[in-house]
What does this fold into?
Amino acid sequence: MTDRGSRRQYHGMDLPAPLAWLVDEAGTSASPDQFLAELGGRLLADGMPLAGGALILSVSHPIIAQRTWLWRAETGAVIERLGFTGDAPDQAGREWLVELGPVQEDTTGSPLDGPVLGWAGICPFGPAEVDRLRQVARFAAARLDALAARVSLTALLEAYLGRRSAARVQAGALRRGAGEIILAALLCADLRDFTALSEATEPAAMITALDGWFDRIAGAVHAFGGRC
It folds into this structure.
């Protein structure tokens, strides 16, 4: 493979540099935010008039339904927001893009729950630029599927082990007897008159009420980096 300005020769094909990166190097991205920032930066360097980008992944988690990463071209910064179970599909990420400029959005996997890669431009995208971004989405699909699987595994481990323990397990800390001391603030919350309520309420309705209560408590805790 040889460099030719913003294009590269790849096995006889003349690929734009961002596509060659997706083929050869994107698999080393450690996280979705790193992937989005790197891809956005390479598209900028290749002349794409971007104002920002968004990556939306669905996750398997009892509370969190979606994770969204938002990248701003001006600063290169990436922020993350969470979409919780029961909420409407994440519109905040899309609205954030619309505030930046005209939007081009592509679902790279299943139309219902596949990764969504969206871009906002500093001006309306022309037909050639729309085609280029759709091509980027096609080349990114395999990489995003791998990232989505990794994010879902992390979410499941965090749901049942907690964020800190999940990270230790993924890092290979599997031996028994290896503990650690941490500083933590503990929140103890209870549902007032739960015993009387459970005795007077049908089981299905009681479970629904508990789910709603837990969503409110856990949602606030998770939003500020805590865990339940």
Q: What stands out?
A: The helical segments are 17-24, 32-45, 92-100, 127-161, 163-170, 194-200, 203-223.
